[in-house]
Amino acid sequence: MLNFTMNNQKRIPAIAFGTWRLPDCPETVQTILNAIREGYRSIDTAAKYGNERSVGAAIRQSPVAREELFIATKLRNTQRGYDSTLRDFDRALTEMGLEYIDLYMIHWPASADFYDNWEQINADTWRAMERLHDEGLIRSLGVSNFTQRYLDALKKTANIAPAVNQISLHPGIYQNQQSLIEYCTGHGYLLTAYSPLGAGAVLQSDSICSIAEKYGKSPAQICLKWCLQHGIIPLPKSSTVERMRQNLDLFDFTLDKEDMHLIDHMANLGSEPRNPDNCDFD
Ligand SMILES: NC(=O)c1ccc[n+]([C@@H]2O[C@H](COP(=O)([O-])OP(=O)(O)OC[C@H]3O[C@@H](n4cnc5c(N)ncnc54)[C@H](OP(=O)(O)O)[C@@H]3O)[C@@H](O)[C@H]2O)c1
Fold this sequence. Notes:
By secondary structure, this protein is an alpha/beta fold. The protein contains eleven helices and ten strands.
């Protein structure tokens, strides 16, 4: 598996396996074991997904050594703040049965429209994560769904810069995200793309389908390769082994400049990325 290097010089696999909507159950343990067997070395979960136990069980059962796997999870939004972050991280680590997490992220910033003291909440959360990092329990710190406003605010108090910002990205919303992508890249924050296959509509788009035909690849492979060529790590989720395999089979073709440009400028077919300024969830 190809790796990217983060701003802390640690390596991160170029493709991750997404686990949102996989329930906490033995079938999910098997799905993750299948993904590891197919070659995924990076797994993305979150407290909010409610499946950290199954993800942890799969990692412990996997024949692949722990240090060859890259495990990311995210703080639940109800647990932001210094003490509650420490507590919820401890819960996650215990439920997963792991000794450390490779990448721990704030799932969603405390939003300016919802909390008067949003800057303080995010700063306190980050300070707790820095402590866990210094104790060796987290290898890299990251954020998710942070726009420039939240990254700028965090910068004022952070001692450790975020290594990663995980954002919504798929063909059709590149132009919405372009300034954030340029900002993150300029500041050395590696981007990972969630929902890289978008809503089903993206995979059925005529433009994506005709590009897929030209390269002899599937529409999903075009979406994922487009991310990689932007230097962004895609996090596709699939429950089926055939699709897991397909979503890793991206290294025998390159999208040409014209096709990259075409995909960058595709009209949006799904929903706009949500903005933390006016959106909050638990
Ligand atoms: N940080 C955040 O706020 C946030 C938000 C959303 C998601 N995420 C992360 O990002 C991951 C991916 O996002 P996502 O789950 O929303 O969506 P996604 O990966 O863009 O799409 C998943 C859907 O595409 C289907 N699919 C997968 N591979 C395919 C292929 N080769 N051909 C056709 N269909 C295919 C899957 O069906 P099957 O399973 O049936 O194959 C599933 O219905 C999540 O699992 C999660 O880890 C993070």
